[in-house]
Amino acid sequence: MKLLLDFEPCKECKTMMSELSSPEIIFGDEKTRSDESAKFLRHLTYNHNEVVQAVMEDLPKQKKDQEPDFYQ
Ligand SMILES: [Zn+2]
Asked: Which terminus of the chain is more solvent-facing, meaning fewer CB atoms within 10 Å of its CB: N or C?
């Protein structure tokens, strides 16, 4: 979640972020986790587009560091 530190989360963001870090989600199954992340991402896309832009710009850089084979 460190990518999202640079923006001002609205009330909905805070709710979703605490849901995402709740034990039900963290220890939940993969589908639950991906549903919740998708919900949060959708909210970001519609309400905080500048964050999504920043994340997208940051993503390839991080991917490359973590997964050197990704681009091969
Ligand atoms: Zn929000």
From this structure: C
